[in-house]
Amino acid sequence: MIAEASPTGNFKSRARFAAAGLVIVSLLMGYAGNARVSSAEDNHSHTQTITVPEEDRFTPFALTIHSGDSVEWVNKDTDDHTVVSDDAFNTTGPKGLNQMLPGTVAGGGNHGTFHLRFTHPGTFVYFCRFHSHLDGSNQPVAPGPDGGIQDANGNFGTPMMGVITVLRKDE
After folding, report:
1. In degrees rounded to 5, what are phi and psi of residue 81?
2. Interatomic CA distance for residues 144 and 156, integer angstroms
3. pLDDT band at 77, cuts 50/70/90?
4. pLDDT for the residue 135
5. CA-CA 20 to 30 A from 99: which of 51, 72, 111, 146?
6. Is residue 124 a contact partner of residue 86, using CB atoms and an 8 Å limit?
């Protein structure tokens, strides 16, 4: 004997299936929405600022932050500068970073800015490619005779560089 489904029974079955699917989708959407909200609330991430004052240096030179925090570089100098990752020592942050920070002249009076979020612990060593270069040991050094400003004593100054230490969130 072959059973035939009545139109009412088939409809009820489809309606139950659709209702169950709707409940599951709603729960998943609610879970995903809550996950985003709670992660943002629990993250307690902060943004620290590194400034290029009206001279060739990053201040502060050394900065300690926590995983999930961000750093914003602000160039208040008239000259352009860059944030370049020293990948030989970079254990956190993007590799191959070479970000321009326009000066106030190029920026039409506005400060150049760049924002970077660090998602895991490590060290981020960076330098300005206009005001330092890497030597044979991958250490930032002052530009030397091919660039930079030499003082009366023949000194080419300190390389424009900085170091960010990223700790675990619980440290």
Report:
1. -140, 175
2. 6
3. very high
4. 78
5. 146
6. no
DSSP string spanning 44-105?
Answer: ---EEEEEE-SSS--BSSEEEEETT-EEEEEE-SSS-EEEEE-TTT--SS-TT-EEEE--TT
The distance of Cα 18 from the centroid of its chain, to the nearest Å, equals: 43
pLDDT of 160 strictly over 80: yes
The answer, as to whether pTM is greater than 0.70, is: no
The pLDDT value recorded for residue 21 is: 40
C-alpha–C-alpha distance, residues 48 and 140, integer Å: 23
CATH code reported for the domain at 47-167:
2.60.40.420
pLDDT averaged over every residue in the chain: 75
- b/e per residue, 130-158, with b = 16+ CB within 10 A? bbbbbeeeebbbbbeeeebeeeeeeebbe
Give 89's contacts (C-beta < 8 A, 6+ positions apart): 123, 125, 138
Q: Cβ distance 77 to 56 under 8 Å?
A: yes
Residues 6+ apart with CB under 8 A from 56: 77, 79, 81, 128, 131, 157, 160
